[in-house]
Amino acid sequence: MKFFTAALFASVVSSFAVDSLISGASVIPATETHELRRIGAHHHKHHDRRTVTIRSSRNDTDDVSRDFLWGIARANRGGRLLLKKGETYVIGKRMDLSFLNNIEVQLDGELKFTDDVPYWQKNYFYYPFQKSISFWRWGGQDIKIFGTGVLNGNGQRWYNEFAGQEILDPDNTYLRPILFLTENATRISVEGITQLNSPCWTNFFVGSNDVSFDDVFITAYSTNISALPKNTDGFDSYNVNGLSVTNTRVDVGDDCFSPKPNTTNIFVQNLWCNNTHGVSMGSIGQYPGVMDIIEHAYLENITLLNGQNGARLKAWAGEGVGYGRINNITYKNIHIENTDNPVVLDQCYFDIESEECAKFPSQVNVTDITFESISGTSSGKEGRVVADLICSPNAVCNNIHLADINLTSPAGSPPVIICEGIQGDIGVECQSSTNATQTKRSLGMS
């Protein structure tokens, strides 16, 4: 890592000295308040700093990657890089930003990646978990990104070319970049910006601590009805301690919030999700012999609209999977509307038939789970079922508690809660999946 960072700086310095101004750039001292106000760098929530500006792109093919990298290096250690409102900055080269220390990036304009698929599929940062790749990586400590601008993944071409394929298909070779990725980052915050049209996951945090997002809008949409955005999760994480998401809106067509293996100390508050696969813990336990953990999560005041799932936990089962635990998770004050599966506990993930799940039960223990004050409606797709809690036979699945559940279904009443394989009382009346299936058949739904 140190060698790579040194090589990075060497390549920058070989073309222009970091301490010298490059064409179209400026550096304004923190004491020049009038000038900072004039260029839009005087922020009501952040103290004035030495502020760096760079030239913007003249068009969508004018790559300012080198300028951006110079600006980051010049603003590092106590300064701020300002990306001005009304300007677009096109990024067409992969960038390693793992050297950061005490830096702010004020994104008021648009930071936009090229859609040069052949380039990006040869030039990326690779992570073995679900064969993930990224345009860039941010690392270091005390990193703040804030503003009113847009981080644009320019995903339409990726959506078109990936149509009909699946991310979990072992034969898939069409890898798509993640829009924002941190690796070995400590105390990194993102505030106020919009994240638009990521080719794949929107955010992925790897080996990082104290990551926070506040007042962020994440959206992905397609202009091609035959090629919708796919796997554009709002938030994913791997080996992270301390993840906070507050006052944020997500509309992406996949997981709204979905921490992955070894994510601990999670706080989510005032999250709005539309057209998503829900707020999920996991999936974990995918890889043979690997221990995965998700624990100590508190999620409250969440709205889930028009989605596939609501509050959800996912643990792999079947032959040749991993092990671990999902522990001490609380969902509280969750409002759900028009959602197929409002509450889900799936210890037979991914698409495992009941016979295989019984033969090869999940080795991920699910313990100390609370669903409290859950209200709203399902879509009726699953009949009267509003909560589906399925644990693997002979697996550890205990201290699962539901309280103040006020969910209804347009398919009729009373609403049905399914529970299978859970040890102990869950706090509400529930029935087996067999009985629920019989009920659905009586209603002509299966």
Automatic annotation (TrEMBL):
<dbReference type="GO" id="GO:0047911">
    <property type="term" value="F:galacturan 1,4-alpha-galacturonidase activity"/>
</dbReference>
<keyword id="KW-1015">Disulfide bond</keyword>
<dbReference type="GO" id="GO:0005576">
    <property type="term" value="C:extracellular region"/>
</dbReference>
<keyword id="KW-0732">Signal</keyword>
<keyword id="KW-0326">Glycosidase</keyword>
<keyword id="KW-0325">Glycoprotein</keyword>
<dbReference type="GO" id="GO:0071555">
    <property type="term" value="P:cell wall organization"/>
</dbReference>
<comment type="function">
    <text>Specific in hydrolyzing the terminal glycosidic bond of polygalacturonic acid and oligogalacturonates.</text>
</comment>
<dbReference type="Pfam" id="PF00295">
    <property type="entry name" value="Glyco_hydro_28"/>
</dbReference>
<keyword id="KW-0961">Cell wall biogenesis/degradation</keyword>
<dbReference type="InterPro" id="IPR012334">
    <property type="entry name" value="Pectin_lyas_fold"/>
</dbReference>
<dbReference type="GO" id="GO:0005975">
    <property type="term" value="P:carbohydrate metabolic process"/>
</dbReference>
<keyword id="KW-0964">Secreted</keyword>
<keyword id="KW-0378">Hydrolase</keyword>
<dbReference type="GO" id="GO:0004650">
    <property type="term" value="F:polygalacturonase activity"/>
</dbReference>
<keyword id="KW-0677">Repeat</keyword>
<comment type="similarity">
    <text>Belongs to the glycosyl hydrolase 28 family.</text>
</comment>
<feature type="signal peptide">
    <location>
        <begin position="1"/>
        <end position="15"/>
    </location>
</feature>
<dbReference type="InterPro" id="IPR000743">
    <property type="entry name" value="Glyco_hydro_28"/>
</dbReference>
<dbReference type="InterPro" id="IPR011050">
    <property type="entry name" value="Pectin_lyase_fold/virulence"/>
</dbReference>
<protein>
    <recommendedName>
        <fullName>galacturonan 1,4-alpha-galacturonidase</fullName>
        <ecNumber>3.2.1.67</ecNumber>
    </recommendedName>
</protein>
